[in-house]
Inverse folding.
């Protein structure tokens, strides 16, 4: 084969490979396919918008399951903290139906110097197809001494224009951007996966193949917060609050 023909052949193959990558990127971003811990480093998509539209079907969603970075099984608990704060996250043996979907209730209790300052009930469902975990809202109680209980930040999908968001994709694709909360004027948290295959040390242990997300919200321009998740564990650090203990408890 002449050098000219060889060059034409390789150019043709290169074009096919580029086209395949372009087609595969959005499929991976939807969580179809994964490696052994659900994280993948890949070229970032051309669009930097946050995904807000998710193709959800009630029959595809379950109230119980396990994503590599998000455990949705009753009795699972995370204890995080720093010098003056304790955050206890517990997957309860309770469900709530929202928009026809049976969601799992996850309780968060935050303490400041031993005093309960916030309790929230969060509602999640996991996809049977790809293990993506969707967020359907939260009920919030904020306690301030001498003041009525506040419910600021509470929202539910299907109420006042709110829609479900994506809390953790089935595959952690580097550069993926997605809306976690879609509640106009109330909660508009969004996340970008900015790191995969990291190693991170916290009081609960040394974790590998960790992913890092950067969270922002248009309701607080300029505010950014990093979170880290470990495979088989879940959240190990939220800003300066770090994982102290994790495991299953008797409810």
């Amino acid at each position: 084969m002449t050098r000219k023909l060889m060059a034409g052949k390789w150019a043709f193959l290169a074009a096919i490979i580029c086209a395949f990558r372009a087609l595969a990127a959005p499929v991976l971003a939807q969580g179809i396919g994964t490696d052994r811990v659900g994280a993948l480093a890949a070229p970032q998509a051309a669009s930097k918008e946050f995904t807000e539209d998710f193709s959800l079907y009630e029959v595809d969603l379950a109230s119980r399951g396990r994503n590599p970075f998000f455990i949705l099984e009753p009795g699972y608990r995370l204890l995080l903290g720093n010098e003056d704060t304790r955050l206890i996250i517990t997957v309860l043996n309770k469900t709530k139906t929202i928009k026809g979907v049976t969601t799992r209730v996850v309780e968060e209790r935050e303490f400041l110097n031993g005093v309960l300052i916030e309790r929230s009930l969060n509602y999640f469902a996991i996809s049977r197809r790809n293990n993506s975990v969707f967020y359907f809202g939260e009920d919030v109680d904020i306690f301030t001494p001498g003041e009525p209980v506040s419910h600021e930040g509470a929202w539910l999908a299907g109420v006042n224009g709110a829609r479900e968001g994506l809390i953790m994709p089935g595959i952690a694709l580097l550069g993926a951007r997605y809306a976690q909360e879609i509640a106009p004027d109330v909660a508009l948290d969004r996340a970008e996966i900015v790191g995969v295959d990291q190693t991170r040390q916290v009081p609960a242990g040394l974790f590998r193949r960790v992913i890092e997300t950067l969270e922002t919200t248009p309701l607080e321009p300029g505010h950014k917060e990093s979170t880290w998740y470990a495979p088989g564990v879940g959240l190990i650090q939220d800003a300066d609050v770090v994982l102290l203990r994790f495991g299953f408890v008797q409810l």
About this structure: The mean pLDDT is 86.
